[in-house]
Amino acid sequence: MTGTDVKSDLHRYLNSARDAVLWKLEGLSEYDIRRPLTATGTNLLGLVKHLAGCEIGYFGRCFGRPFPEELPWLREDAEPNADMWATPEESRDDVVGLYRRARAHSDATIEALDLTAPGRVPWWSEKGRDATLHLILVHMIAETHRHAGHADIVRELVDGAVGMQAGNDNMAPGDEAWWKSYRDRLEHAAKTADGG
Q1: How many Å apart are CA 113 and CA 109, to the nearest integer?
Q2: What is the pLDDT of residues 74-96, one digit of tens each?
Q3: Which of 56, 108, 121, 187 registers the highest number of CB atoms within 10 A of its CB?
Q4: Residue 194 and residue 111: Cα distance in Å, rounded?
């Protein structure tokens, strides 16, 4: 048995989550990628914008490798949640393009540094601010997969589309009738457990 390259493995998991998030935008209108479908306003394009900012911060600023563009929603005086939605002036191409540039910038950091390379996360508590590339990769894998899960749910609310990736939805086989029956069973189980 041969060993694996840990950095390559981590990078592959990060890339799979990045791709999943972008895939959730495919085939949707400008309205549908921006629609706030939760009480807190979660929307597909906002998730991409947020993740671009995360990549810029964690793989750029934390390792002294600043991103070449200034983003107003990342300034200290930005309004709360400014990174979680796209203004009408910010097109899909603008936000996705930014995410791709942020990703390329992050990839350059990942490629240039060893997993033990030291970084500093100024927005973490003083006790935990010192980090390595390894820790930041793990953190960003978790962050990106978390938001890919949000995107899964939001996309299902938009048009019923589900799945992990194109050509591999990773869902149980079943037609619309099967899923309705399945959901009804879950509803019944929930009511029964609640005493109803």
Answers
A1: 6
A2: 888 999 999 999 999 999 999 99
A3: 56
A4: 52
Residue 173 CA to residue 180 CA, distance in Å, equals 13
Residues in contact with 63: Cβ distance below 8 Å, sequence separation at least 6, in sequence order: 109, 113, 117, 119, 133, 136
Owner of token pair 């996360």: 121
Give, as one character, the DSSP assignment of residue 118: E
Mean pLDDT value of segment 42-50: 97
Residues facing residue 118 across a β-bridge? 132
- CA separation (Å) from 93 to 36, 97, 194? 19, 6, 47
pTM for this predicted structure: 0.91
Q: Which residues of 12-41 are buried (b: 16+ CB within 10 A; e: fewer)?
A: ebbeebbebbbbbbeebeeebbbbebeeee
